[in-house]
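Please, structure for the following, as tokens.
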Amino acid sequence: MKIAQKNLDNLKKFAPFLESTSTLGWIWIAFLVLIIISGFAAIIYQISEGQIVTGMRDYVSWSLYKVNFIFFMGVGLAGALTSSVLHLANPSWKKPIVRISELMAIISLIIGPVYILCDVGRLDRLINVFIYARLASPITWDVIAILMELIVCIVFLYLGLIHNFAILRDYDQLKVSKFKKRLYRFMAINYENTPEQKKQIEWSQNVLAVMVIPMGIIVYSVIAWLFGMTKQAGWDSTIFGPYFVIAASFGGISALIIVLASFRKFFKFEEYITIKHFNILANTMLILAFFYGYLSFSEYFSKWYGFATFNTELINMLFDFSGYGPWFVYANFIAMLAPMLILAIPKWRTITSITISAIIVVTAFWVKCYLIIIPTLESQHLPIQDSRPEWINYTPSLVEITLTLAGFATFCLFLTLAAKFVTVLPSSVEIEDRSYTK
């Protein structure tokens, strides 16, 4: 396969990241690996000692594990939707975003369900979920939907990478190990960039992109129904499906902005990932902020205005500034207003300000996941006899915090390793107009 001159020029710039790792890069990888190893030690300790080492008790039977599950699944949804929509719409500026969002989706869909395994007490009975699955159970729907979405996303990403694998296979000046070269050759599956091959891959990607969009929405809606189909305070809601999808898209787009800013800074991609891309994602985040604000107001106002005692107790907990109040304001007001104030004024729009607003939103999304789960479980309307304060009030243990940090470290490590194996930007990506690079 003859490498186009444009691809060859880009490969000369991308090749150093595939060929070697700087000292700073090794320090970063070692730091992430140490956090992940501490996570392995924490889960081994939890398995050996039992879940008493966590903060979970009779009232709060879910913990940071469930919070992290919802968070990562939300980031996965946003990544999958972004890559699929951009592939189908095919705008000229999509290439620097699509592959990174695909990687985010797959990594998040792998990490998220692992937290469910940390949450359950009898991993030896996990096989029963498949052997004795009940189709009437939303948990069964969740398992099937997540597995299907993960498989489709992996195939979708691989089809987009075949051309890159073939280029790396045929690029003689690439100084990588023989094993890596053989792996590129194997992954390229004899691709020669013929019109027929290009047509088949394009058709397959279009089909998968169409599949990913409804599947992603269904997966996160099913997660929402796990809450909405109960009579728990705060969960008994008919809008949890769209509310979860909008909140996940809001937080996931913000996570994508942070990842793009990181790649742009540390991989020197200023010529490819420009203010133009950040502005487009910022506009998307701004639109989602309005939807998120509206749904948040509808959700909490209807509960506050209603007369259900258990909902009133929950609202009082959320507005109590000696407890959850500051976090509630941060997750529902600051997360909505920050993008509006920062991004609505054109002269304030810089890559730095957009990234800061994204950091605010993505951290608020995690806090929102926490507020959906923990306060509700702490305000049970069916009291337990002889309930002690330590049974009711949840405090994360060091084990849970360590495993939470390990999950985020794994996310960063997988993205870093992916960038060392393939070009995270397609080799055919074009340099944007110089006026956009400031």
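Residues 171 and 197 are 20 Å apart (CA to CA). The radius of gyration is 23 Å.
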